[in-house]
Amino acid sequence: MSISRWLKPIIIAFLALQSLGGAGAQGLVDAMAPAVGKRVTFAGADLPVGASVTLQAWWYPAPGHAAGQTAPAVVLLHGCGGMFSRQGEPSMRMRSYTELLNGKGWHALVVDSLTPRGEKELCTQRSGTRKVTMVERRRDALAALQWLAVQPEVDAARLALLGWSNGGSAVLAATNRLHPEVARAAVKPVLAVAFYPGCDNELRRGYQPVSNTLLLVGLADDWTPAAPCQALGGPRDGPNGAVMQVRVLAYEDAHHGFDGLAPVMHRKDVPNGVNPGQGVHVGGNAEARRQSRQALLDALQAAFARP
Q1: Contact 153, 93 (CB under 8 A)
Q2: pLDDT of residue 45 exceeding 80
Q3: How far apart are alpha carbons 111 and 138 in whole angstroms?
Q4: How far is 291 from 180, CA to CA, in rounded Å?
Q5: 126-155 b/e with 16+ CB inside 10 Å = b?
């Protein structure tokens, strides 16, 4: 009796794994397995001044590091939709980027700014009415950097902030030394990266970053427009007379959320944006996704390179 056509590839794959031996086969299985995060908690500051909140985050240590070794780490800050899917798991975007970072040998920490404060999302809330503001998000980012700095497997001299949309705005707020909390923070990142952030507030305030910054924006974005971010580009005054570079990469025909996989859709439930009350457009752009992810990796690689 002949082997059916559909069964042959399975047998071939099985024999290939067997030929690698136990360790080799397990290595392939491990490489294909998605990163699994561990829930951690740490203290954060909250308003009013002096009050505290227990933050939660998902910790994705880079695989393969021996005891005593340290590696760079990245704080991931979610957008206004929060870090979870409808199933209560870290969203596809968060999982995708933690796997991308882990694949380079870097640790990842995804911070949840909403659940500890009784919120699920901010997207449908008007700006100015939100319970979770940029103050809280900035403080969460700073608390996450502090937590990372004391982890034995983390190189505290090689930390980065990475955020999307509202979380991208938080990246800017957490790296602008004109905020007293940022200026006096003991732990600072070596790089800040923001996908399609709202840049208006820090542009008006005057952005003086504590690190080099990479902004990845879409020219078709009608939620957080590219122009204010482009105005931030160029050399900026940094700490102790240093000059920090703000690099802005803008992608043609790219809407808000261009690094995602979903098609572009019109969200009428979002009250903010370029045309308040008319909704916004959100969705992926394959070429912008490819280019921006590579730009992110290149920037992190350069920032994490040892002198």
Answers
A1: no
A2: no
A3: 12
A4: 35
A5: eeeeeebebebbbbbbbbbbbbbbebebbb
